[in-house]
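Last lecture ended with a question: if I hand you only a sequence, what can you say about the shape of the protein? Today we answer it with a concrete record. The protein is TetR family transcriptional regulator. Below, first the input exactly as provided, then the predicted structure, then a couple of comments.
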Amino acid sequence: MLAETGDTSASIQAIAERADVGFGSFYNHFESKTELFEAAVVDALEEFGQTFDKHLAGIDDPAELLAAGFRLSARMADSHPELMQVLRRRGLGHIHSDNGLSSRALRDLQVGMASGRFTAVEPTVALSALGGTLLSLVELRFARPDLDGDEAAVNLAEMVLRMLGLPADDAHEVSRRPLPELG
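The predicted structure:
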């Protein structure tokens, strides 16, 4: 329901029917619809983070990790549309969460800053900029499917890397490195 419409006003009865469980079973797991939808968003964002872990394993350069993350996100709008719709509709409220993609991005930012790869700024502020840019990219993929999503992601990744202090030529090269397949 979150992926399809973003509607959180559905009745508990409609939710239970959709999940093919009894109405009373709902309350065995959740105290409210709000708790259910929050758990669904957290689960979706953790799945998103795990997908990145799986596909980006072995990349040590924090700049390459961030660029690849932007590019994989654009591709996931096609390969995992339900997951990306949840991110699109509910991701802003989770930019600073302790799980999902946020914790991984914060880790990569901190590694990049500690190594001198990124200009030292407050990591939480940098995470806000990255998260907002990523959510804008996801929105762009759904709002303008006629645009080349891969090219938009490469361009945004290059801009983000420059924002984090990489020289222009380095940001250009890193944002265009070969990308692992989603499979």
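Comments.
1. The radius of gyration is 18 Å.
2. Residues 71 and 151 are 9 Å apart (CA to CA).
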